[in-house]
Amino acid sequence: MSTVVLSGCGNEIPDKNDVKPISWYVEHPEIRKEMIKKCRDNPGEKNPNCTNAIFADYEDYKGPDTEK
């Protein structure tokens, strides 16, 4: 089990056994960026955090839902 620490903020990139929801990644953009970078470096690894971080990046980009 490996963990990456982001210096200065005290937050860690979760490993694949600590699955964070999309909303968590939306609220933690710096960790989301680092997770996406890690996932792109090893695209063959099956890690649900990769999927959630990518979806969170999309959610953050498109903005909140505007359904009526």
TrEMBL record:
Q: What is this protein called?
A: Entry exclusion protein
Organism equals: Zooshikella ganghwensis
